[in-house]
């Protein structure tokens, strides 16, 4: 009878169970792996053979048997070194070197030639799948144990080597399960590198960033070189609210699959802040590859994607942001596979108004011709600009204010207001499957963004005068809802709509 061992495969951000069947039959020796394996899986034959031999068991190449390993279902592509451990265990059971029940166990791990186990990616989705499918135990490399033990209800067995596992399965030397990892143990006080208190002036920009953080609204800052746009964006990270448990799991899953979790940071507890260079390609931004992997928009999920020198990005690269900005997801389609990744990020962008940067600057003369300015500004398409909630100008700072010793409001104080606003939103949307004001759809806006007749008349007049699109009107209402939350107001007042209207783009950025 063939031995059957359970493992997993990663499809997008989720894991699916994989049956590893190992059968030994009489005949000339061969070792074949079938079931749509990639090159890394096919090479596991050599790793498994050496690991079994160096663990003092009879290796496959010492048996005059035909060894067939089937990875089922066969229509799912199997990648990486996940299957070294289950193949080794399956062979040892099929060759009757050990006897054990593996019906409710999952095995995942890469084998070294000496039989020790190496870390693999995507452990967290595997454990989540194991819990949903009713598996009781998951065997993982010891370096993955902290990450795996976040999920309660599944016993995690950390493994250092293959021989240790065999002794455990035989019952001669039991390995204790890893204690449950509490998220609170990994949440530490974030060190603020760039504090708003040390940024002189720019009060209007700071206010706009506070609103953006409170409601997860996209923001574009425009101004001359040296006005502090990049500094403000870096300080923006210091006012972001704490992540919830669900957000921590969402983001950690992405980083687990992308292989960006270290042994000492099994959890992502701080909101991501990603800042790709303006020469980044569309695939690096959106994700992709023959078998799609997450890109920058997914790595910044529930955090911030900061695009400095926004107008210097290639236009076709920026156009890729349309779908994730609108839907909070990105679908990557390739010939072999189509995968949807989450991409609910806050876009923070900074740009100069023209190539020399001095257009509309009252202190320095702009040397760009009107045609050059127009061409530079058209690098960002109208539909993409319409998806940005807040447009703010960041003027040059005067010397007197720059050298002032008076401290501005600290990031910690601003974060407290942001956190209070987010708490209101979490309570409001507890039954809506959204978390922030920026995620509201039309039905939810009708329910939570009601305005009185006087305020409605003002908004209607502004929409006609400014020729606002339907999307722009919705974004104004969402912004006003966030401004009301910051003011701890249940109603959206006229002043809140007036402030939200100020953040729509002018004729030039």
Task: Describe this structure as you would to a colleague.
With 509 residues, this protein is an alpha/beta fold. It folds into two domains: 179 residues, Ribosomal Protein S5, domain 2, CATH 3.30.230.10; 234 residues, Rossmann fold, CATH 3.40.50.300. Strands 11-14-17-10-18 form a five-stranded parallel sheet. The protein has a four-stranded mixed sheet with strand order 1-2-4-3. A hairpin with a 4-residue loop joins strand 15 and strand 16. Helix 7 crosses helix 20. The longest helix has 18 residues. It is elongated, with a radius of gyration of 28 Å.
Helix and strand layout, with pairings?
Elements: E1 3-11, E2 14-26, E3 30-34, H1 39-42, H2 44-54, E4 65-72, H3 84-94, E5 105-107, E6 110-111, E7 117-118, H4 123-133, E8 137-141, H5 145-148, E9 155-159, H6 162-170, H7 203-215, E10 219-222, H8 229-236, H9 245-257, E11 273-274, H10 282-286, E12 287-288, E13 293-294, H11 296-299, E14 304-307, H12 315-318, H13 322-327, E15 329-333, E16 338-342, E17 346-351, H14 370-377, H15 382-386, E18 390-393, H16 399-402, H17 411-428, H18 442-448, H19 453-466, H20 470-486, H21 494-501
Parallel strand pairs: 3-4, 5-8, 8-9, 10-17, 10-18, 11-14, 14-17
Antiparallel strand pairs: 1-2, 2-4, 6-7, 12-13, 15-16
Low-pLDDT runs:
none
Number of domains: 2
What fraction of the residues are assigned to beta strands by DSSP?
15-25%
Q: What structural class do the secondary elements suggest?
A: alpha/beta
CATH topology of the largest domain: Rossmann fold
CATH architectural arrangement of the largest domain? 3-Layer(aba) Sandwich
Q: How would you sum up the global shape?
A: elongated
């Amino acid at each position: 009878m063939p031995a059957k061992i359970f493992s997993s495969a990663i499809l997008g951000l989720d894991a699916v169970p994989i049956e590893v069947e190992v059968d030994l039959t009489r005949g000339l020796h061969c070792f074949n792996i079938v079931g749509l394996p990639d090159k890394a899986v096919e090479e596991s034959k050599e790793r498994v053979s050496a690991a079994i031999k160096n663990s003092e068991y009879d290796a496959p190449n010492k048996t005059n048997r035909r060894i067939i390993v089937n990875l089922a279902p066969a229509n799912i592509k199997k990648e990486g070194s996940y299957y070294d451990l289950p193949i080794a265990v399956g062979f040892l059971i099929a060759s009757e070197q050990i006897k054990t029940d593996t019906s409710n166990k999952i095995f995942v791990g890469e084998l070294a030639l000496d039989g020790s186990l190496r870390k693999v990616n995507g452990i967290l989705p595997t454990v989540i799948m194991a819990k949903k499918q009713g598996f009781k135990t998951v065997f993982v490399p010891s370096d993955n144990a902290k990450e795996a033990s976040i999920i309660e209800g599944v016993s995690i067995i950390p493994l250092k080597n293959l021989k240790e596992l065999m002794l455990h399965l035989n019952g001669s030397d039991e390995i204790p399960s890893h204690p449950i990892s509490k998220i609170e143990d990994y949440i530490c006080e974030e060190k603020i590198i760039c504090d708003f208190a040390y940024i002189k002036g720019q009060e209007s920009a700071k206010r706009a960033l506070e609103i953006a953080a409170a409601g997860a609204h996209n923001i574009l800052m425009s101004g001359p070189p040296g006005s502090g746009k990049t500094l403000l964006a870096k300080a923006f990270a210091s006012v972001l609210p704490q992540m919830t448990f669900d957000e921590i799991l969402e983001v950690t899953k992405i980083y687990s699959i992308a292989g960006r979790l270290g042994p000492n940071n099994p959890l992502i507890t701080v909101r991501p802040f990603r800042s790709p260079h303006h020469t980044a390609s569309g695939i690096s931004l959106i994700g992709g590859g023959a078998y799609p992997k997450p890109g920058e928009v997914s790595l910044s999920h529930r955090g911030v994607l900061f695009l400095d020198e926004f107008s210097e990005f290639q236009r076709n690269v920026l156009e890729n942001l349309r779908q994730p900005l609108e839907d909070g997801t990105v679908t990557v389609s390739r010939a072999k596979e189509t995968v949807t990744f989450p991409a609910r990020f806050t876009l923070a962008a900074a740009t100069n108004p023209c190539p020399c940067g001095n257009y509309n600057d009252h202190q320095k003369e702009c040397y760009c011709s009107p045609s050059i300015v127009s061409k530079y500004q058209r690098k960002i398409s109208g539909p993409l600009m319409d998806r940005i909630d807040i447009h703010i100008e960041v003027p040059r700072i005067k010397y007197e204010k720059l050298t002032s010793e008076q401290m501005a409001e600290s990031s910690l104080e601003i974060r407290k207001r942001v956190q209070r606003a987010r708490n209101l939103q979490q309570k409001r949307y507890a039954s809506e499957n959204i978390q922030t004001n920026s995620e509201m759809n039309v039905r939810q806006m009708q329910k939570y963004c009601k305005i009185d007749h006087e305020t409605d008349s003002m908004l209607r007049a502004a929409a006609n005068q400014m020729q606002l699109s339907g999307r722009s009107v919705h974004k104004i209402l969402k912004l006003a809802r966030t401004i009301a939350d910051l003011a701890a107001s249940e109603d959206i007042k006229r002043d809140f709509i007036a402030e939200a209207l100020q953040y729509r783009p002018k004729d030039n950025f």
